[in-house]
Task: inverse folding
């Protein structure tokens, strides 16, 4: 079970955060998101994630994020084909979940608008993977689920806890670019990618 960042940052004046999880644990968290969103395992505790999906899509109850129950069938198919494919699938899941989660944490902490997330980070089609076509769909799905889970974790932080988060990230390369409302959308996108990469390096094994 993933510890929330909100619970991990007990001292908002600190310059570092004691929160480290494995990529496999991030995958487990993203699968909770997928179960909730597809209705396969929605509970009162996960309703907030469902609401977050709807908010980012902006289409109310009829939202159509590219996350499907078909992912479980794809993974089962890999297992049937052979262990090599299953190992490849597991690696894709861990890599893309971790990236999506890390970028989502930063955008959530910054209280970024859902429209920005939707237009700049949500993957609306499978990633390009000519050598392993099914892997592209898997990567897309786990990245998107990780993105929403991370956004939820980051959004729950108070302003003081967000300050602690960015002081923590400064341990890996110093302060990140200082942006404001006049900065370009591209600059903000690059900011989130850089900050997400730092978070991943520091906090996901």
Result:
């Amino acid at each position: 079970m993933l510890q929330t960042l909100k619970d991990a940052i007990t001292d908002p004046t600190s310059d570092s955060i004691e929160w480290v999880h494995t990529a496999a644990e991030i995958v487990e968290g993203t699968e909770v998101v997928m179960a909730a969103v597809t209705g396969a395992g929605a509970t009162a505790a996960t309703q907030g994630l469902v609401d977050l999906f709807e908010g980012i899509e902006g289409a109310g109850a009829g939202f159509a994020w590219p996350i499907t129950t078909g992912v479980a069938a794809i993974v089962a198919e890999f297992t049937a084909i052979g262990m090599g494919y299953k190992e490849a699938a597991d690696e894709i899941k861990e890599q893309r979940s971790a990236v999506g989660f890390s970028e989502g944490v930063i955008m959530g902490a910054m209280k970024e608008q859902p429209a920005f997330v939707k237009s700049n980070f949500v993957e609306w089609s499978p990633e390009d993977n000519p050598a392993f076509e099914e892997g592209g769909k898997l990567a897309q799905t786990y990245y998107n689920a990780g993105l929403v889970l991370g956004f939820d974790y980051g959004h729950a932080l108070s302003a003081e806890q967000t300050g602690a988060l960015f002081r923590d990230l400064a341990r890996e390369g110093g302060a990140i670019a200082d942006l404001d409302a006049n900065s370009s959308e591209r600059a903000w996108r690059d900011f989130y990618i850089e900050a997400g990469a730092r978070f991943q390096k520091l906090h996901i094994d």
